[in-house]
Structures are given as structure tokens and as C-alpha cells.
């Protein structure tokens, strides 16, 4: 049997360290285009490494806790990117809304659609637990309505924003809903979120059947996960002017910055969801997708609420008419997809069309 390579020789160990080195060399400096490209590579490497180490920790603690670890790790990255870009002060009043909404649309349509399509192409019909997935969708819809829809119609503050007391209520309500869901998912009804494969077993896979890592390996991955997150936060701050300049140079609206952030932080989780779907474990894919959507709202809004104490300028959270229509369509289609507890490539294709419509209209409103 071949010996396992030392951890020090793997890219997942090197990427966080290189990200910190790149951060130290570029912090507070004006960067030429070549250096910006290097920073982008290091940033992507740090994101991928962060999710890899989150997967190691997740494998140690088991499912569905593993999906929760991944969702929270990705959301921490997302919140860090939002706060760092908002601190720059350039077109930042709607950045939190645009990024959170983009995360919801990408997870509920892009990741769900890809998982259903990949799984059904390989296994014809995919099955999942409608009770657990339905409760996750209910939480996503509640959070999206309270935090992103209501600010469009409230009148206590001018524009699509909450007053101070309303923002506080939304933040507390978000934490409450998210906390209740986590308790339900990990304590009272874990079986609702376990993979459902009635007529078959998950396909053989080295990750599925590998022994859980030791406590020492999990702790090392936890430490490297934290290092990766520091690298992501710092490099995002370094690259934020280039992201905004790039969006301007392409003639895209400033709100498209939120889409770029969401696509960046959700890419590794998308890959994880597709891998699970290929193994006929679509329930895990849905846990990842809806868990990320829920964490994106339930954890981001409270952090932004606290950050608004020292951040200058308005905080626009209310969705625009086109976004409201897309959200309503996503909710309706998601309910019809989840209620039967099984899906085919048709449902996956419909969700992907909604995801494509969102990206297209975000670039061409």
C-alpha cells in the first residue's frame, strides 16, 4: 500500500500559507494587473482550500452536521467579502442585498438545478427527503421575505431600507430562524436530512467509504480552515478595487459586483454538491444548497446590522421589481420540485433556466 503524502506537500496545506504570504506582500499597495491576477489565483486557491478543510471536518463529524460546517464556512467567506467591499464606500449601499440575493438565486436554482440534472442524468430519477428539504426551503423563504422583501414596502425609512429598530428585529429574527433550523437538523430530526436511496445504495466512492479522519487530522484541518479564511478576507480587501474596476470596464451595473462575490464563494460548494449528486446522494446536495442560502441570509444580515453602526451611508436591503419576480418564481418552482420527494432532469433544467435568467438580467437589467 502506498504511503500517504505528508500534509505539508499537499496543495490544500500550501494554498492557505501562500495566501497569507501574498497578503503580506500586497497589503495597502496599488497593484499592477499582473499582480492582481496572481492575487486572484491565490484568492481562489484559499477559497478551495477552505472548503476542502471544511469537508475534512465535516467528514469527521458526519452528516448532516457536515453540510452545516460547509455552509457556515462559505457564509463566513461571503460576509467577509461583503464587509470589506462595503468598507471601501464605493456603490456599497446595495452590496449586501445584491450579494445575499445572488447567493439565494445561485444556491436555490444553480446548485439545486445542477445537482438534480447531474443526478438524474446518471440515475434517471433522484430521491430525497421532502420533510427535511421542505423545512429548509420554508426557512429560506421566511428569511428572504423578512430581510429582502419587506424593506421594499416599509415606510419608516426612506427608500428600500429598514429603520434602525426594524433592522434590529430582522437581525434577531434571522438568528432565531437559523438557530431553530440548526437545532432541528442536528438534534431533533437528523434523519430528515440523511441521504435517501430507496432502491439502491450510494455508488462506491473513496470519500464516501473512507474512514473518518482522526481527531488530530480534523484539528489540523480546522486550523488550516481558519488560516484560509484569514487569507480570503485579506486578499478580498486587496482585490476589491480591481473587482469594482473590472465590472465598470465591462460596462456592467455596479450591482453585478454582488453576483461576482456570490459566484466566487459558492463555486467550491457547487462542486461538492455535484459530486454528491453523482454518488446518488442528492439529499446531501440539497442540504448544501439550501443550507448555504439560509446561512447567507441568517448570518449575513445580523453581521451587516452590527457593521452598519460604524459604516457610513444607507443600507438598501429591499429587492427591486425584477428581483421580486425572480424570487417569487424561484419559491413557486422550488415548492413544486420538493413536495414529491423525487425529481428528474426536467426539474433540474427548469431551475438552471431560472439561474441563467438571474445572471443575464443582473448583467443586463
Brief summary:
Keywords: Membrane, Transmembrane, Transmembrane helix. Helices cover 73% and strands 1% of the residues.
Number of helices: 12
Strands ordered across the widest β-sheet: 1-2
Low-confidence stretches: 1-8
CATH C-level label: Mainly Alpha
**Helical percent range?**
over 70%
Strand content: under 5%
Structure, explained:
- It is a single chain.
- Helices cover 73% and strands 1% of the residues.
- It contains twelve helices and two strands.
- The model is unreliable at 1-8 (pLDDT under 50).
- The chain is globular.
- The chain has one domain: A middle domain of Talin 1.
- With 365 residues, it is mainly α.
- The longest helix is centred in the middle third of the chain and has 35 residues, at 215-249.
- Its main location: membrane.
- It is found in: Membrane.
- Residues 33-186, 221-361 form the Sodium/calcium exchanger membrane region domain.
- It is a multi-pass membrane protein.
- This is Ionic transporter y4hA.
Amino acid at each position: 500500500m502506498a504511503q500517504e503524502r505528508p500534509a505539508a506537500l499537499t496543495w490544500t496545506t500550501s494554498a492557505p500559507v501562500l495566501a497569507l504570504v501574498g497578503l503580506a506582500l500586497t497589503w495597502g499597495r496599488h497593484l499592477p494587473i499582473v499582480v492582481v491576477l496572481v492575487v486572484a489565483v491565490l484568492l481562489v486557491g484559499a477559497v478551495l482550500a477552505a472548503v476542502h478543510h471544511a469537508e475534512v471536518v465535516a467528514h469527521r463529524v458526519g452528516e448532516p452536521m457536515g453540510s452545516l460546517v460547509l455552509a457556515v464556512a462559505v457564509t463566513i467567506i461571503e460576509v467577509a467579502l461583503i464587509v470589506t467591499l462595503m468598507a471601501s464606500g464605493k456603490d456599497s449601499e446595495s452590496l449586501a442585498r445584491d450579494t445575499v440575493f445572488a447567493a439565494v438565486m445561485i444556491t436555490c436554482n444553480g446548485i439545486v438545478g445542477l445537482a438534480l440534472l447531474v443526478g438524474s442524468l446518471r440515475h434517471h430519477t433522484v430521491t430525497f427527503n421532502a420533510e427535511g428539504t421542505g423545512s429548509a426551503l420554508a426557512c429560506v423563504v421566511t428569511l428572504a421575505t423578512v430581510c429582502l422583501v419587506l424593506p421594499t414596502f416599509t415606510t419608516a425609512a426612506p427608500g428600500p431600507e429598514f429603520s434602525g429598530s426594524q433592522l434590529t428585529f430582522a437581525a434577531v429574527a434571522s438568528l432565531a430562524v437559523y438557530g431553530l433550523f440548526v437545532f432541528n437538523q442536528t438534534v431533533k430530526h437528523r434523519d430528515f436530512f440523511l441521504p435517501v436511496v430507496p432502491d439502491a445504495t450510494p455508488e462506491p466512492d473513496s470519500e464516501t467509504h473512507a474512514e473518518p479522519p482522526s481527531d488530530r487530522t480534523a484539528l489540523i484541518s480546522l486550523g488550516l480552515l481558519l488560516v484560509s479564511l484569514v487569507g480570503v478576507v485579506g486578499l478580498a480587501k486587496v482585490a476589491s478595487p480591481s473587482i469594482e474596476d473590472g465590472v465598470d470596464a465591462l460596462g456592467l451595473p455596479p450591482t453585478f459586483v454582488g453576483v461576482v462575490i456570490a459566484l466566487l464563494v459558492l463555486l467550491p460548494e457547487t462542486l461538492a454538491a455535484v459530486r454528491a449528486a453523482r454518488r446518488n446522494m442528492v439529499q446531501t446536495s440539497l442540504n448544501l444548497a439550501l443550507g448555504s442560502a439560509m446561512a447567507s441570509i441568517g448570518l449575513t444580515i445580523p453581521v451587516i446590522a452590527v457593521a452598519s453602526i460604524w459604516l457610513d451611508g444607507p443600507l438598501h436591503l429591499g429587492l427591486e421589481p425584477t428581483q421580486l419576480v425572480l424570487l417569487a418564481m424561484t419559491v413557486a418552482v422550488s415548492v413544486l420540485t420538493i413536495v414529491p420527494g423525487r425529481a428528474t432532469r426536467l426539474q433540474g433544467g427548469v431551475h438552471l433556466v431560472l439561474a441563467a435568467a438571474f445572471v443575464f438580467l443582473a448583467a443586463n437589467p
